[in-house]
Amino acid sequence: MDIKVTEQKSELALAYKEHATMENIVAVIDKGLNMTINHLMALGKQPAGAPYCCYTNGSEDFSEFDLELGFPVAEEVPVKDGMYMARTYGGKVVESMHKGAYDTLEETYTAMMRYVQENSLEMTGVYYDWYLNDPDNTPEDELLTKVVFPVR
């Protein structure tokens, strides 16, 4: 697994936020990403990049958290239904590419957390998953997710 420190640029995004637990995470992600892409399509706009899920305000055991779900956009768009304009994190990050089913992402997270510790980096408590291909037409073992930890 290739894990590296790099710089990520901040991007303007159409986003939606909702509290989630491990029990309803899939439904919340589906809801947020479907809402935002459908809104962009209704406006005749295309996303400027891959969809993302940003985890914030996680409980100590990571059983619940807030999820920001969205798509980068080239320009601000009108918002509705709890959607808002956001900016993704820009700055120093640890990143890795996860290949495989979403339910195996924990393996990548664990390896990345170990890397952060071993390299004396400080986590910010924010985590990003960038979904690089579509699970509706990609075999599970071919799914690509860029995992990003903002660090100090």
CATH topology: Multidrug-efflux Transporter 1 Regulator Bmrr, Chain A
N-to-C order of helices and strands? EEHEEEEHEE
Give a count of the beta strands, DSSP E runs of length 2 or more.
8
Number of helices: 2
Taking all Cα atoms into account, the compactness measure Rg is 15 Å
Largest β sheet strand count, sense and barrel closure:
8 strands, antiparallel
Strand content: 35-45%
Provide the low-confidence segments as ranges. Answer: none
- Structural class of the secondary elements? alpha+beta
Helix content: 10-25%
Q: CATH architecture, please?
A: Alpha-Beta Barrel
The CATH C-level name is Alpha Beta
The CATH superfamily bears the name Regulatory factor, effector binding domain
Mean residue pLDDT: 96
Shape: globular
Strand order of the largest sheet: 1-6-8-7-3-4-2-5
Number of structural units classed as domains: 1
Separation, N- and C-terminal Cα atoms = 22 Å
Structure in words:
By secondary structure, the protein is α+β, with helices and mostly antiparallel strands. The chain has one domain (3-150): Multidrug-efflux Transporter 1 Regulator Bmrr, Chain A. It has helices spanning 25-42, 105-118, and strands at residues 3-8, 12-21, 52-56, 64-72, 83-87, 91-99, 127-131, 144-150. It has an 8-stranded antiparallel sheet. A hairpin with a 7-residue loop joins strand 3 and strand 4. The longest helix is centred in the N-terminal third of the chain and has 18 residues, at 25-42. The mean pLDDT is 96.
